[in-house]
Amino acid sequence: MIKRVRWGLWLLVVLALTLFALFAIQLSRPKDNFVHSGMIGKPIPEFALKPAVDDRPGLSSADLAQGEPHLLNIFASWCVPCAAEAPQLAELEAQGANIVSVAIRDRPEDVRAFLDMYGNPYSRIGADDLSEVQFAIGSSGVPETFVVDGKGVIQYQHIGDIREDDVPMLLEKLKGAGQ
Amino acid sequence: MARVLSLLAVLAVLLGALPLQAQNDLPPAPYAYKQLDDPAQEAAAQKLMETLRCLKCQSQSIADSDAPMAGDMRHQVRSRIAAGEDPEAIRSWLIDRYGDYVSYAPRVTATTWPLFALPLVLLALGLLIMLRRFGGPK
Q: Measured on CA atoms in the order A122, A126, A131, A136, is the torsion positive or negative?
């Protein structure tokens, strides 16, 4: 009888230790508040957006499957970090990246003013007034930047503004998508 | 002078707030705040919207949130339901994109099954212990 009680107590100790080990593992993991897109590795869903400004064409899913890899930047004129990443986008463009974009919930005159102020690195800008393309590709905010290969398959998602040290990484991803 | 300075400070704060305000310059999506005409469809949409997470304001459902993005999600849900799509198909469509995180409705998956199994196991264990204590011949 005593032996059985002992055995039960040891079991409790083991259970408690397992639980604490679980806590330790989970707590030592870095916190990740980002909502990652589930569309990585999948072809970009079909869409066709009207132009957001008059000097750049709009954007459709077909434009992204012409053989050349693209950076797809999700931005908005009302988004402060989008202004912060403008120099990095300019640098990416200068280094040969073809950047297309989707403007979320934006008026043409606001997009115009934004581009006049921070520069225009985009070859195409589609206007997504109902955030439909944003939902379709699993983007949960602005700015976000997707790497899309020449077949129109989404290869990578960068969440948040592009910092100076993200530039080489994104160029690398873009190069990888081109092979 | 101090008054002028504080006035300037207030002005600077107001100007700084402008770009954020501009998010609402575009009118809300057609079905962001407008119910569907068919009451049955609207009820189905409402039920679904209450169990979908707003991605901008992560502890609210899209039915509760006034964020423009939540309005656009409500528009998605209502227009898809109006087009005859099944609510659970819309939920799966969103889960494919944002993961289980976007849905408040619990699902049994490879990682969540212990949550559902454990209460049953504990109940069975409790019954077993009670049977051994009270039931059966001495």
A: negative
